[in-house]
Amino acid sequence: MTVTVSTESSVIDQQLAEARAAIAALPTLERVFFTACGGSYAVMMPNEYFVSSRSTSLETAAFNAAEFTARASRRVNSQSVVILCSHSGTTPETVEAARHARAAGALTVAFTHELGSPLAEAAEYVIAYQHGEGKSEAYVAPSLMLRLVAGLLDDHEGSTHGAAVDAAVASLPSVVPAVKAKYADAADAWGFSYRREELIYTMASGSNYGPAYSFAICLLQEMQWVHSAAIHAGEYFHGPFEITDVDVPFIALLGLDETRAIEERAVKFLTAHSERTLVIDAKDFGLDHLDESVRGIAAHLIFGVVLRTFADALADHRGHPLSVRRYMWRMDY
Ligand SMILES: N[C@@H]1[C@@H](O)[C@H](O)[C@@H](COP(=O)(O)O)O[C@@H]1O
């Protein structure tokens, strides 16, 4: 059995504080870019939503790392922060994006599980998040990135997101086990019922699009070899709703952020025309204790956990472990 050793939480707190202080010390900050690949890119999406919907002065964008480098935007410069993420720290596109951003004069902050990895070497600041056995839900990549971004906004604009986000993240170690237990039976029943399904779509908007995207491309396509696509709930009525039918499976997310009405409109149509829709509503996550100002942006942290519970159940009933790959990491590509 592989034992995954994670960095101590006190060390991670120090890394987070150092990265935040370095960003605050920039003479001018105009832009925050987020870039990564695959599941790590999906982690970026809610953070781009957070900056975009809350900031009064900063430009922001999230890119696949290969495209970030290929675009070679001249707006990536000394007035920019570039936040990167790679679990392994070895994904070549993400390492290259860090080198590119640094050469362009941007401040680079990398989230990775692997200290000493090429990405950790390439970036100026590194936050080594926890993963695997013994991890704390407060110290995984999505939680830490949200804390960094809230702190960045507070430092730059005098906002007060940090305390509420920190409190939300600190509550995760108690919220997550309860949520997992709550969905265990539903996930098992869904996994059994959908075990022979060849195609399952996902749908969401706003800060929850990232988890929907990650479930479609990482868990269904990569890890289960099930056809899928993440459909933006606002885009649903502009093409995708034509494939809706009684027997076409969807997982539709209802979040708590400003875009919930967009998701509700799509779910209303979907459930009227399909008998195979699983709706996961963040109102059922038990997040009422969180400050209302951050409940919406915190919900994606729980969607990730809940969707993983469904993926574990599906993998179990399909007899197809989530670790199996045909091509990834097995050959040159
Ligand atoms: N599901 C993801 C993939 O989408 C990603 O390509 C890969 C490398 O990612 P990272 O750069 O985070 O190591 O890891 C995971 O398996």
Automatic annotation (TrEMBL):
- GO MF, any single term: carbohydrate derivative binding
Entry's CDD domains?
Answer: SIS_1, SIS_GlmS_GlmD_2
At the top level of its lineage, which domain of life is listed? Bacteria
Return the Pfam families for the record: SIS
Tell me which InterPro entries the record gives. Answer: FrlB_SIS, Fructosamine_deglycase_FrlB, GlmS/FrlB_SIS, SIS_dom, SIS_dom_sf
Instruction: Provide the GO biological process annotations.
Output: fructose 6-phosphate metabolic process; protein N-linked glycosylation; UDP-N-acetylglucosamine metabolic process
Domain (SIS) ranges: 19-159
What is the name listed in the Swiss-Prot or TrEMBL entry for this protein?
Answer: SIS domain-containing protein
The species is: Microbacterium mitrae
Q: What is the lineage of its organism?
A: Bacteria, Bacillati, Actinomycetota, Actinomycetes, Micrococcales
